[in-house]
Amino acid sequence: MHWLDWSVIALYMGMVTLIGFLFVRKANASVADYFVAGRSLPWWLAGTSLVATSFAADTPLFVAGLLATKGIAGNWIWWNQAIAWALAIVFFARLWRRSGVTTDAEFIELRYGGKSGAFLRGFRALFMSAIVSTCTLAWVMLAMQKIVQATLARPEWVESLQLSIEQSFDLAPGAIDLWKWTVLVSLFLIATFYTVLAGFWGIVVTDLVQFVIAIVGAIVFAFYALDSVGGMTGLQAGLLEEYGPQRVSDMLRFFPEFVSLRAGLSFVVVYFSMLWWTDCNGYAAQRMFSTRDERQSTLASLWFSIAHFALRPWPWIVVGLVALVQYPGLEDPETGYPKLLMEIMPPGLKGMLVASLLAAFMSTVDTHLNWNASYFVTDIYKRFLVPDADEAKCLQVSRMSVLVYAVMAIVVAYFMTSIESGVLIFFNLTSSIGLVLILRWFWWRVNAWSEISAMIASVVFTTMLPIISDRYDLGWSFETRILLTVALVTPTWLVVTLLTAPVEAKHLDKFYRGVQPPDLWWGPVAARCPEVLSQGGLVRPAMSWVSCAVMLYALLFTIGNSVLLQWSEAAVSAAVVCIASLTMWKTYPRS
After folding, report:
1. What residues form the membrane-spanning segments (predicted)?
2. What is the tens place of the pLDDT at every residue in 244-259?
3. DSSP code for 89
4. Spatial separation of the C-alpha atoms in residues 168 and 393, rounded to whole Å
5. b/e per residue, 81-99, with b = 16+ CB within 10 A?
6. Cβ atoms of residues 191 and 57 within 8 Å
């Protein structure tokens, strides 16, 4: 790369380091400041932080790979989540903020109470921080290696040093990649540094910087990529010449073409009825906890949904399509994105794009480290180990736990050799337990054992079904396994719910008065709490939810059709956006 590119990258690294120093005082104010920014963030900052965090460094590469194998329609593997976020906009954003908790694990004890609630709170905190999030960080580090290899050339002195190390320790050539690990660990340590110093304040501000760099860089990259093939008409002509009309038609579809009724029903049932099941917990909920009030939480969720689902994918898709024209024979289609970046972007802009990918990696790292520490301090240390710990001690433990989780992630990444099928396993696990996470807000009878049994059953069936499929040569697809897992997990936790005692009435009443969840199936509790005003049923909120989801998808297709120069389709989609937005606003619950 040109010296100007290295200067841009160095400037960004210096900027985020400076932010770490600038927000030390704010982070030191309290544990709430360290983990949820003192619950004072405006909607645009909380929402933008979530947009930046949800963009991993390899996301554009992942999208490019989907285009090569499944076309634009392959993005439904994550587009389906817009349904969940529509539900968050209408319901969960307000409820999460109203709960007043710091972590979603803390909410478990708020909702259930008792020994089972305390156990589940501690178990979830430990499981999510020590296993799920740490393994996610390790996976992100492995994925980042591909970007480092494609964008940052290995200096000659590193080659010499690596050769010397291999000879000194009698290692096989290439046993270690000194350059990759030096870059990755350096980026990881910088992110850890400002996370330790500035806490959540430093994270959201660096996320804002990263988002601006990433979105501007992606759009500029898309324009340069299109220009390299003669614009959109040249791109379409190049695709037709390289792949033929039928393949291009399949590639540019927004929905997959169903070869049978069974395949169509499978797509609808799985992607629209099951995969999105979630109440937007975890680090997404952390952003909702951090906002000033319920309105700001809702607006943050709305802004995130629009930016994440409708705005951000299209520059990546455009570049991915150009890469298919420029490099039709790539063995790994995902490498087309960084390869094109290095070949067509001029000095300075190339550095900005590379910096945005490095920043995306650091954004994921800082969020997970702070999130992990919030679990440990709030749900393990202060809840079980040292309940009377003061603020100063908790802040000290917070910083120490960030460092411990950072070391754990690096160690796991070093020994992790494969991430194959990890994403699909994650979707399988989360979709099968998602229904109980949603219904705990709507049905008083759900208890801690409901969640515990759902988690156990999900792990058992997610593990067993692929084994059974292979053993008897059944050839079950990803969608089929999800259908079967949900069909087995759901009755399991429902039976456990009905066979175990409900949450104590006094605890349910306190939760109902404080959080005021939708009163769909809270009859006995609502009868004991007449002072809590009824929200008038779920018909209007359900209409608002559906309208919000339609609006998000219509906006996604409006932008997509405009990018592909399909103006009549874009006009129809834009009209749907207007109608759905008005319907959502008119039916939105005001309480």
Report:
1. 6-24, 36-57, 77-97, 118-142, 178-201, 208-226, 259-278, 299-324, 344-365, 402-419, 425-443, 452-469, 481-503, 542-564, 570-588
2. 999 999 999 998 776 5
3. I
4. 45
5. bbbbbbbbbbbbbbbbbbb
6. no
